[in-house]
User: Fold these one by one.
Assistant:
Number 1:
Amino acid sequence: MEKLWGGILEVLRELLPEASFRVWIKPLKYMGLKENRILIACPNQFSLEWIKENYLPLFREAIKKQKLSLDVEFLVEEETINNAIVQGELPYDPTRLLGRKLSGRFTFEEFVVGECNRLAYATCWALANKNPKSPIIYLCAGTGLGKSHLSQAVGNYILKNPGKGKICYLTAQDFTAHLVRALKQDRFDEFKEKLRKGLEILMLEEVHHFAGKDFTQQELALTLDYLYDAGKIVVFTANRPPQEIERLDDSLRSRFQAGAIVRINPPDYQTRINIIRRKAEKQGIKLKEEVIDYLAQNLRGDIRQIESAIVGLVARSSLLQEPITLSLAQELIQEITPQVPSLTKDFIIDLVCRYFKVSKEDLTSKKRQRKISFSRQVAMYLCRRFTDESLQAIGKLFNKDHATVVYAIKNINKKLSLPGPTKYQIEYLCREIEEYLQPTKPINKKEIKADTGQAVSGSTRRLKSL
Ligand SMILES: Nc1ncnc2c1ncn2[C@@H]1O[C@H](COP(=O)(O)OP(=O)(O)OP(=O)(O)O)[C@@H](O)[C@H]1O
C-alpha cells in the first residue's frame, strides 16, 4: 500500500506547483486503509481544512489514476495518534493517562527557550526528570505564552519513559465537572480514589477558574494534601499568581503557594526571532531574514499569533503562487494586528506615576527619596523590557546615564527573584502593560464616562480604583 501512496504523491506533484506541493502535501502522512477509504493524516486542523477545500478533487483524481475505486479521508495527526492508541502502536501505555489527551506537539524539544521562559523550562525539565527542588510548580503567564505547552511537556516526557504511575491531566473546569458528576452518581469515593491511588503526576490547568467554587476548592485542597504528602508531582497553570486570584479559599491559596511559582514572560525580541524560525521550519519554509525581523518587531505577545501569522503567510504565498516577501508579511500583519496600540515610553511613565503616586517631574528629577528613586528604577526596568529603546536612550529619558539604567534593571531583577509585595507590584505593572499591548476591543458603551463622554481604557479605570 506504500506503493499506492507513492503513486498518489507522484500524480499530485505533477498537478501542483512545486511550492504548494512542498508546503501542503509533503507533510501529510499515509495512515492506511479503512473500509474503502484511504486515511491521510494532516499536521493540524488548519492544514486539514485547507486541503479539503482546495485539493480534494486532485486527490480523487490521483487515486483514480491508480485504477482504484477508493475515497479519501483526512484526519488531524493527533486524531491518528488516538487511533494508534486503540491499535496499541503508541510508544507508551495509554492506560497510564487519565483525563485529557496530551498534545503530541507539546514537548520539550518543540519548546523554544529564551530569557522570558528559561526558569519555567528548567523547572519543568527538572520535574520531568524527577530531580526537582520542589515537586510542585505553579506556572503563571498571560495567554498564549506556553503554560500548557510546558505542563504537557512534563506529562509527555514522563509518559514516554518507562514507569507505572498514572498521569492525570485536567483543567479546573474538568475537575469541577468530574466532581459534580461523581456526586450526582453517588460515586464520590471512586472519584477520590482515582485521583489519588497510583497517581504519579497531576497536571491541573487554569486554576484561576476555581474562584468562587467553595466545595470544589475544599475537595481539591484535600486531594492536594494527599498528593503532597506522598511526594507526587503537581503542575498548576494559571493566568495570575495565587495571591491575585479573588474568591479563593486561603487554604487552597496556600497550597498553590507551596511550590515554585514561576512566571513565563512575553517573549523578548531574540526569543521571538528563534520562535519564528522554528515555526517556519516546521511548515517546511525558510523565511528571509528581513521577514523574520519584521515579524519579530510586530508580533510581540501571544505566541499563538506568531504561529497563525506563519500559517497565514504560507497559505497566502501558496494561493497567490508568490514567494514570501516583506510586503506579503506587511500586508498580513496589517490585517491581523489592526488595532494594536503602539507602546510608548510615555505610557509606561504615566502608568508608574499613577501607580506609585509620583509626578513625572519627580521621576525625571535628581531627587533621591526612596519612593521616587524606586519608582524611577521600576520605570527604567519596564522601558527596557517592553520597548526597543537602548540603555542610553532610556537613561536620557530620566536624565541619567546608561550605567544607572543597568544598575536599576539589576536591582529590579533581584527584587523579582524574591517573593514579596515588591515583586507583586512589579508583576502587576507588567500585566497592565501586557494587557495594553493586546489588540483593543471595540469600546463598550459602559466604558464611556457619563460626565464627559470620554472613553476610559480598562487600565485607566483599574488604576483609578487602586
Ligand atoms: N517557547 C515556545 N516555543 C515554541 N512554541 C511555543 C512556545 N510558547 C508557546 N508556544 C506555542 O504557542 C501556542 C500557545 O501556547 P500554550 O497553549 O501553551 O499557551 P498558554 O499559555 O497555555 O495559553 P492559554 O492561557 O491561552 O491557554 C502553542 O501552540 C505552543 O506550542
Number 2:
Amino acid sequence: MACENNLVVKQIIDLYSQISNLESLKPSKNVDTLFGQLVSTCLPTDTDIDVTKIHDEKVKDMRSHLIKLCGEAEGYLEQHFSTIIGSFEDNPLNHLHIFPYYNNYLKLSKLEFDLLAEHTSHVPTKIAFIGSGPMPLTSIVLAKFHLPNTTIHNFDIDSEANILASNLVSRDLDLSERMIFHTTDVLNAKEGLDQYDVVFLAALVGMDKESKVKAIEHLEKHMAPGAVLMLRSAHGLRAFLYPIVDSCDLKGFEVLTIYHPSDDVVNSVVIARKLGGLSEAHSSQIERCVVMPCNCSKIHAIMNSRGIKKNMIEEFTAIE
Ligand SMILES: C[S@@+](CC[C@H](N)C(=O)[O-])C[C@H]1O[C@@H](n2cnc3c(N)ncnc32)[C@H](O)[C@@H]1O
C-alpha cells in the first residue's frame, strides 16, 4: 500500500494541518497537546514506513515543512524552560527534571556515550557540540554523568540561546569551568575545529538534506583526521520529525554505526570517523571495512543482541 494511504501517515497529515494553522508555536496547552500527539504517533517502530519512498509531492512537502515546524517549536520549548530553570536562586542544574524531555536526553546521551566508548580507545578531552541551544542538555548530561574531565565547547548561531545556556551552568562550580559557549553559524566555525576529539552535530542543524550535507562537508573540511563525528538522524515514522542522515551524506568519513532506538528516544544516532587518522581509524579498518560509496556498501541490519530487544543497529561492510 502506498505510504500516503497509510492510516498513521493520514493521522500525521491531520496533525500537521492543525499545527501549521497555529498562531504561535510557543509552549501552550494546545501546542503541547498537538506536539505530544505528533510525537506519540511517530514513535512506533513496528511499521515499514520509509519516507524516502514517498512519491506524493504534497506529502514530501508536508514532511519538510513539519520538520521545520518541529525545530521551531523545540527551540521555543527550550527557551521557555531555560528561562524558568535559570531563574532558580540555587544551582539551576538541580532543577533540570522540570524540562519535559529531560529523561529522553538522559537516555539519548547515555546511548551516544556508549556508542562513543565502543568506538574510541581513549576518553575525549575536548568535545564540540554544534547546535547546543538554550537548553544544552546533551552537553550537560555528558559532562555531569559520563565525562567528568572533558571540556565541552558549545556552538550556537543564536546569541540569546547561549546567554540562557551559560546562565544555566553559571552557578555550578564544575560545569561553569568545563562548558564553553561560542556564538557562530557552524559554517563560519573554521579554525580550532581540528582540536576536538569528538564533534556532535545537533539534529536541528541542517533541517533539510542540502543544508545538513553542507554542514557535514564543512566539518569534514575542518575536523582532525581520525576525529569522531556524532550525528542525529531518524528512522521510520520518526523521519517526519527530524531529517535523515544517510551514510552517503558522510563523504570523507568512515561510518561506524547507525543506531535506531525503539523506545522513546526519538533520534537515531550516527557515529562516524573522519578518514586519514593514523591511530584508531587504522586499527578500526583492520577490524571493519571502510565504508565504500554507499552504492557499493551493503548495509545489513542486525538485531542488537546486547539485551536491548528490537533496536536496529546497522553495521557497514563493503561488498566483497
Ligand atoms: C534547540 S537546540 C537542540 C539541541 C539540544 N539542546 C541538545 O542538547 O541536544 C538546536 C540549536 O541549533 C541551533 N542551530 C541551528 N542551525 C545552526 C547553525 N547553522 N549553526 C549553529 N547553530 C545552529 C539553533 O539555534 C538551536 O538553538
